[in-house]
Amino acid sequence: MTALDHPARHADGPERPPERVPFPVVDEVARHCLQEEEPETVHIEVHLPGTPDPDRLKAAFTEALRRHPRILMREARGPWYRRRYEWELTAEPDVEVVTFPPPERDALKKARTRSLSEAPPLSASPPIRLEVIASGGDADAVASGGGNGAGGTPTGTPDTDETSAESPAGTSPTDGHAASVLFLTINHTALDGPACLRVLATAAELYGGQDNSPAAPPLRTPSAPAPESADVVGDAPSGWAPPARVSRGAPEPSPGNGMLVAELPVPRRPKGAPFTVNDQLMVATALMIAHWNREHGARPRPFRITMPVDDRTRDMDMPIGNGTRLVEVPFNAAELTSEEWGPDDIGALLRRTADRTRALKALSRPQLGRGAALLTSPVLPVTLRAAVTRGLRRAAAPWTSTTLLSNIGRVPYPLDFGDAGRAYAVWFSAPARLPRGLTVTTASTAGRLHVALRWSKTLLSSGDGAHLRDLFEHYLHATEHTEEGSTP
Q: Which of 455, 436, 439 is nearest to 396 (CA)?
């Protein structure tokens, strides 16, 4: 039984200490590599057409934490020579998790900044916080993708279609209602986005009294069997080849992460296409960075894009913690060097990418690979393993993947908060520390694609982020028109 699957048991009385659970591999590696300058946080923002009642929401969210007890935990204290970090499971939160900051100018932008720069402490249970932001005065910031944590609102092309982020089904949420945003900030050492979204869905059901069970996954056209493991990458580059880096733009003087959010149409697939929307997002990400690097004079190099794979169920039995495994999708330098991408070229790249992603998803491997599992074996004290892990991380930096694309997919829960309404937009973002320095996180709600670009400020600026957003939109649209057929 892994720590993720471990049932939470709490103290039955004042004399029995709380149950302790050893850190899983993912948690321990993240704990070893913490940095104050760039906290490892995951942010989730859920846009609602109305404002929930503070007392009812606090009660619902607290009860949701109790129903998913693996989230009620803090890092246990221990001597320097201990062999493992341990989570201490608690019966109740140590801190007030849900807060309602007073309305202020640029409240949404400031909440995003806090989410990127202030991680909930591991020493208090649970290592998350939920802020309810009154966003009625931030309509322009949301529509333009502002509040990027970099102190400015990036500008983009006029056809980015982001303004519809403010109006579900053509009705403005601010017509007769004060729109609000539920803003979850997660310490990624302990938890990931899908796990916390499951807890939030439980809170929505308790608050609104509506069924928030996950919807059945969409029916997909049967695809060809995944290639054998020997053919996983075909003529893709060797894993020993250092991949391309995202070229430096106009870095900002302050440390930390910046972020830009945008809403786009979910890309259409030609009928019978052998690739998925995830493959379209993967190709758009690769072509976005290849274009960016060409503009900045970088020589062609192979790419590797890290892709989290989540095999967990989405019901009440979903394991809570860091439950995704990471695979790396490779691209040859020659695959991405063209400056003109016609339908035939993109169609061929999509088919190759689909073969690789299917094969990689089918492989059975530990969450971070066998090397990480060996590195976290409790042979040496954690302080010594931490020093070794940080040293290896620095040494392996040239071989770290080019970027990370985390596609949450269709948000499976209604997130119906009763009198506060149903979520019409949900954004996630993943940490973007160097050497990657850039991550792309996507999710879809109500037929719209919600994209978050997050970057290290030592690599890019808010203006760079806006340009990358425009490139991503351009290439994502191009994946809709391939040799298999074009959309009307």
A: 436
Q: Which pLDDT score is estimated for 239? A: 63
Rounded (10°) CA dihedral 63, 66, 70, 71: 40
Containing structural domain, residue 446: 20-486
* Below-70 pLDDT ranges, the chain: 1-16, 136-178, 217-239, 366-375, 482-488
130 - beta bridge partners?
Answer: 98, 184
Report how far residue 353's alpha carbon sits from residue 349's, in angstroms, rounded to the nearest whole number. Answer: 6
DSSP per-residue string spanning 365-400: --TT-HHHHHHT-TTS-HHHHHHHHHHHHHHTGGGS
Distance CA 300, CA 284 (A): 17
Q: Dig out the tokens for 178 from the structure.
A: 């004060």
**Which amino acid belongs to residue 262?**
A
Sheet of 73-75, strand order: 20-22, 86-89, 73-75
Helix axes 462-478, 277-295, angle to 10 degrees: 130
Would you give the DSSP letter of residue 143?
H
Query: Using CA atoms, how far apart are residues 186 and 259, in angstroms rounded to an integer?
Result: 16
129 falls within a domain: yes
User: How far apart, in whole angstroms, are the C-alpha atoms of residue 80 and residue 463?
Assistant: 44
**Beta-carbon-side half-sphere exposure of residue 454 (alpha carbons within 13 Å):** 31
Amino acid at 457: K
- Residue 235: the pLDDT is 59
Q: What is the DSSP letter of 432?
A: -
Asked if the structure places residue 2 within a domain, the reply is: no
CATH code of the domain containing 331: 3.30.559.30
Residue 126: cis peptide before it, omega within 30 degrees of 0: yes
Entry pTM: 0.86
